[in-house]
Amino acid sequence: MHSSTARRKTIDDFFRPLRKKATAQDGVDHSQEHDEKNAFELTARATAVPGLSLYPDFINPTEEHKILAFLNDSTRCIWRTDLSRRTMHFGGTYCIIPRTGDVPGQTKPESVQAPDMPQELHWLVQRFVDTGIYEDNKRPQFCIVNEYTGNHGISAHTENFQFGEPVVGLSLLSACSIRFHELAEPFDGSVRSGKAAKAQKTGRVVDVQLPPRSLLIMNGPSRWSWQHEIVRSAKARGPGWKRVSLTFRFKP
Prior knowledge:
Layout (H helix, E strand, L loop, with lengths): L44 E2 L5 E4 L5 H11 L14 E5 L2 E4 L13 E4 L8 H9 L11 E8 L4 E4 L9 E7 L2 E8 L17 E10 L3 E5 L1 H5 L1 E5 L11 E8 L3
Antiparallel strand pairs: 1-2, 2-11, 3-6, 4-5, 6-13, 7-12, 8-11, 8-13, 9-10, 9-12
């Protein structure tokens, strides 16, 4: 790729017009540009898990900051705090399980309608389409945000089978390892119901490192026949460790 500021090295170069360098005065918002490469030029890396791929640096630090600022803006977003970790939902409904002593006599989960996918994330969904991760007419309608700090993790599970593929996870802030367990056969069981723990595993385990701002794509076997988890361990995480993940899902 030739840079717009590249020096002219031959006589012919002096007769080729240089591309105009974008400036704040040209009236175009360049805040969502991906440095010197755009979404179409991103390349996924294969992993040892069949159907699982990883895009390093799917977004840049400025875009990461913009997403986090939106999620932490209490006038636009509300964190769910009934779990050990903070979570947030966009699209569909979710259940809040009352904690002991919260509301006397209330023990049944409460179904809550989540807001639709926010406009502030539309540019990110568009990048999914531009890179061919999702088809234009099959954009993800659902997103769950998880904040992990300290010893937080999540037990091994597959994403609910009511959703299609791919399942896409954007990882922000601190680097993290995600562990995959191969199953003897596809298995749909949630952590909350306790069914996920009953899935028959083959014993094959693969750990995948998730750098900051990377995107994990689960297709095929990795989506249906492998469980994934964030192991609960504060070891090697260090002080101030924090990871925020956004998981996007499409419902046919």
